[in-house]
């Protein structure tokens, strides 16, 4: 690897790398992200390599293992370049066909193409699949296109250009001005303007300053940050170097959750490469600017995503938050001025510096510029990661990009912002999604985790789920959060168990307000949001539980019974065999019965019945 | 406490040179290697870093990833993140609890199995996800739990 001493070295090397790339050379890009890996990606890579060897093609065709590109549901994904044929759900058994048909004979393997779930229409290229065609990929543009383990790939795609510019052409104040003008707001939660935050930190006196990348991604059910780190770690590193230069920091930290082993590994490799070629370390590109980054692992505590807790954790202490002010910019890591940003915020910086603030602000709304990255999970056809302009409507997001709700069920609500967020019901489907409109609806942008729910999701149960989550994750320092969430959880559990009493709903509301205003950190201050927002939009559902002893969605175990329809039951005995508690009886080929006394309402019988013979009341 | 764990811990501790701020990283490495934090190692760390044992203990008990009890040979992690939850992770967890005869967070008396829950592994599109001894199983259902257990017992 080259050691780069000047920006000219960098450009010269980039030229060499680009010259070595033959754009017409056949290439198989195989997704190697966490999702595709667990679906058998590594075996697929081996099988492709073997098939290439067998066909004597291994010299001509390159197999590139890329990072996560977001359409995990359809994985493992293979793209054949230069034609950009997009194969999905590829198994090792398909390897031979891809090589003999597509590579050798130039024919498409029809059954590996994406098929529209509605009409079976097949799409040849990524750009023709609705999931991708409705997206505006900017921050994620290289996801799935490059090998994240090769800095050369990032350079060939224009990487580290922003760094050269930030070191040579721009003064620190100029960098900050550019980021302010772009309108970039923090992508980790509250949406504070990034450039302004940098300016505050730069203005603080002191020689020792730190920058931190928050890659704790605590929102359960969200994986935007994991995907970016796995697919394009250098964009985050480059953003941090630019930011450090602007702020005047010499040391940086990336705090990643340990539940993401692949992201940790990929980042480790990227940092080592950046160091080796002189993009990190002393006198970066001959500018006299020194900066290096250390990797720190989380240990499974949600509260460590909160900035003051995260810094305590880096210092080796329990991740307990402290009151702000002082803000990290004034007194952060080891008491020094510190700037902390989310993965996506850092990854946006090189784009802003390289392409200019105007380019960045071209998309988005008046108050929320650029694109937003969401992970869409739950009851949705296209589970995956999407990058869309800020201001897109929920309807477009759920139905055009997400492909709607599976099984013909009715859309109910979107829960956004995880345990700190709220839900948005069907009647607000046309609301443009940006920081401010979401806040008005009682939800928050959060880090971008969207959970789509349908008619079979109980909103009270969902609120209980989040309350249980925050109660477990509360650090326990302050009473409102420690006990307030406990009492709220007990109340919600009672309601879900069918033991709700008149007055419970009002107790929840009162407690929610107290916990919100009296808690020490953002965890407690936002913990009641899922309850408040479900109460706001689905109060009738709460009332049905409390006053009518009914769970309209058929979820809460204390309020439902399972029955077998004797007309439909064929007596196949599958349900009886699967029941863990032996609550189902019946003779072979005779209708079966569920004993409501023994039944634990686990719902397994309903899941395994091939004839839809189990109903819930 | 076997002697080798302490010896091994000495090697791990020697690799960390940032003093007190290495505490978390040290514990992570010991936990990764031995799947729990033996009492004697915590004492050793407090001596090496010259900090009170209570401080080591407070960090070791704050984070979910650490355990003060030995873990089983086979480790099951059931994701109970939101995406997995709405797709039925609780049924999967129920089934594992009944089949293994232990609750989430417990280890079987013969130190064969440990059952844990985790808050999202970032593989939400594949939910419900169960990680058995480091390998991911996707779209889990209760009947697939039985199949997974049979496979693990057969391989063991
Ligand atoms: C309980 C709690 C959890 C948080 N978790 C995260 C997280 O996982 N990732 C993140 O980037 N920010 C998280 N935040 C927000 C951070 O405190 C901080 O505002 C953010 O990292 C700033 O980066 P940004 O300006 O780029 O958004 C969390 C905040 C709270 C109160
Ligand atoms: S919620 Fe289970 S992997 Fe994300």
Descriptive labels:
heterodimer, A: about 625 residues, alpha/beta, Glutaredoxin, Rossmann fold, Ubiquitin-like (UB roll), 5 domains, five-stranded mixed sheet, four-stranded mixed sheet, 24 helices, 19 strands, about 15% strand, B: about 160 residues, alpha+beta, 2 domains, 7 helices, binds flavin mononucleotide, binds FE2/S2 (inorganic) cluster
Describe the fold and architecture.
The complex is a heterodimer of chains A (617) and B (156). With 617 residues, chain A is α/β, with parallel strands linked by helices. Chain A folds into 5 domains: 10-133, Glutaredoxin, CATH 3.40.30.10; 153-361, NADH-ubiquinone oxidoreductase 51kDa subunit (Rossmann fold), CATH 3.40.50; 371-454, Ubiquitin-like (UB roll), CATH 3.10.20; 459-547, de novo design (two linked rop proteins) (Up-down Bundle); 561-616, Alpha-Beta Plaits. Chain A has 24 helices and 19 strands. In chain A, the strands form 6 sheets. Chain A has a 5-stranded mixed β-sheet with strand order 12-11-15-13-14, with helices on both faces. In chain A, a hairpin with a 5-residue loop joins strand 11 and strand 12 (384-389). In chain A, helix 7 (161-168) crosses helix 14 and helix 8 crosses helix 11. The mean pLDDT of chain A is 95. In chain B, strand 3 and strand 4 form a beta hairpin. Chain B has 2 domains: 5-62, no CATH class; 74-155, Glutaredoxin. In chain B, strands 2-1-3-4 form a 4-stranded mixed β-sheet, covered by helices on one side. The two termini of chain B are 25 Å apart. The model of chain B has no long low-confidence stretch (mean pLDDT 91). Chain B has 7 helices and 4 strands; from the N terminus they run ααααβααβββα. In chain B, 38% of the residues are buried. By secondary structure, chain B is of the alpha+beta class. The chains are: A alpha/beta (617), B alpha+beta (156). At the A-B interface, helix 2, strand 11, strand 15, helix 18 and helix 24 of A face helix 2, helix 4, helix 5, helix 6 and strand 4 of B. The site of flavin mononucleotide has 23 residues of chain A, from strand 10 and helix 21. Flavin mononucleotide (FMN) binds next to strand 10 and helix 21 of chain A.
């Amino acid at each position: 690897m080259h050691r780069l001493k000047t920006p000219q070295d960098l450009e010269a090397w980039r030229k060499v790398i680009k010259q070595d790339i033959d754009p017409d050379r056949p290439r198989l890009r195989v997704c190697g992200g966490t999702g595709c890996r667990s679906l058998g990606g590594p075996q697929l890579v081996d099988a492709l390599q073997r098939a290439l060897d067998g066909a004597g093609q291994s010299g001509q065709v390159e197999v590139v293992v890329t990072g996560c590109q977001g359409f995990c549901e359809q994985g493992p994904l293979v793209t054949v370049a230069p034609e950009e044929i997009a194969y999905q759900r590829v198994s090792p058994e398909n390897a031979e066909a891809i090589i003999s048909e597509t590579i050798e004979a130039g024919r498409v393997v029809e059954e590996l193409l994406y098929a529209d779930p509605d009409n079976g229409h097949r799409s040849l290229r990524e750009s023709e699949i609705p999931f991708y065609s409705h997206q505006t990929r900017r921050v994620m543009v290289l996801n799935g296109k490059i090998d994240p383990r090769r800095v050369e790939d990032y350079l060939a795609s224009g990487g580290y250009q922003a760094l050269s510019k930030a070191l040579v052409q721009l003064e620190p104040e100029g960098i900050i001005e550019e980021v302010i003008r772009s309108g970039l707001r923090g992508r980790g939660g509250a949406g504070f303007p990034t450039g302004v935050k940098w300016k505050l930190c730069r203005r603080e006196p002191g020689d020792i300053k730190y920058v931190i990348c928050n890659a704790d991604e605590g929102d359960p059910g969200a994986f935007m940050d994991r995907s970016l780190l796995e697919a394009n770690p250098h964009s985050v590193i480059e953003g941090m170097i630019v930011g450090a230069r602007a702020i005047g920091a010499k040391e940086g930290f990336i705090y990643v959750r340990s539940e993401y082993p692949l992201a940790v590994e990929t980042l480790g490799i990227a940092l080592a490469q950046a160091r080796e070629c002189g993009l990190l370390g002393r006198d970066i590109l001959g500018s006299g600017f020194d900066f290096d980054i250390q990797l720190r692992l989380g240990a499974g505590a949600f509260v460590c995503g909160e900035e003051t807790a995260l810094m305590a954790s880096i210092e080796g202490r329990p991740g307990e938050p402290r009151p702000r002010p002082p803000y990290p910019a004034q007194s952060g890591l080891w008491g020094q001025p510190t700037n902390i940003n989310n993965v996506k915020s850092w990854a946006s910086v090189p784009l802003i510096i390289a392409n200019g603030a105007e380019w960045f602000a071209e998309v988005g709304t008046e108050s929320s510029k650029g694109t937003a990255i969401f992970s869409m999970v739950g009851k949705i056809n296209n589970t995956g990661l999407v990058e869309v302009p800020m201001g897109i409507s929920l309807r477009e997001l759920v139905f055009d990009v997400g492909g709607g709700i599976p099984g013909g069920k009715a859309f109910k609500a979107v829960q956004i912002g995880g345990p700190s967020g709220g839900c948005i019901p069907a009647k607000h489907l046309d609301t443009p999604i940006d920081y401010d409109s979401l806040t008005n609806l009682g939800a928050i942008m959060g880090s971008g985790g969207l959970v789509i729910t349908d008619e079979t999701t109980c909103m009270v149960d969902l609120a209980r789920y989040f309350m249980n989550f925050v109660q477990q994750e509360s650090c326990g320092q302050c009473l409102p959060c420690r006990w307030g969430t406990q009492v709220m959880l007990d109340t919600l559990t009672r309601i879900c168990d069918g033991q709700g009493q008149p007055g419970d709903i009002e107790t929840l509301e009162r407690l929610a307000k107290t916990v919100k205003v009296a808690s020490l950190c953002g965890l407690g201050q936002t913990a009641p949001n899922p309850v408040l927002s479900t109460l706001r939009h689905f109060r009738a559902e709460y009332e049905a539980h409390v006053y009518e002893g009914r769970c309209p969605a058929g979820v809460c175990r204390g309020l439902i019974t399972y029955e077998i329809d004797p007309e439909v039951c064929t007596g196949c005995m599958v349900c009886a065999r699967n029941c863990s508690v032996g609550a189902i009886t019946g003779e072979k080929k005779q209708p079966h019965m569920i004993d409501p006394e023994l039944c634990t309402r686990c719902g397994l019988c309903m899941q395994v019945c091939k004839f839809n013979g189990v109903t819930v009341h | 406490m076997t002697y080798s764990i302490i010896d091994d811990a000495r090697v791990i501790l020697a690799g960390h040179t940032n003093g007190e701020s290495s505490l978390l990283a040290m514990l992570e490495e010991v936990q990764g290697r031995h799947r729990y934090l033996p009492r004697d190692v915590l004492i050793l760390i407090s001596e090496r870093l010259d900090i009170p044992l209570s401080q080591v203990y407070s960090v070791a008990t704050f984070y979910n990833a650490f355990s003060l009890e030995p873990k089983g040979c086979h480790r099951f992690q059931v994701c109970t993140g939101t995406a997995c939850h709405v797709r039925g992770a609780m049924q999967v967890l129920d089934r594992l609890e009944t089949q293994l005869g232990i609750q989430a967070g417990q280890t079987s008396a013969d130190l064969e199995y440990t059952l844990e829950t985790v808050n999202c592994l970032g593989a939400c599109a594949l939910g419900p996800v169960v990680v058995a001894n480091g390998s991911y199983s996707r779209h889990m259902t209760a009947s697939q739990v039985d199949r997974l257990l049979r496979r693990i017992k057969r391989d063991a």
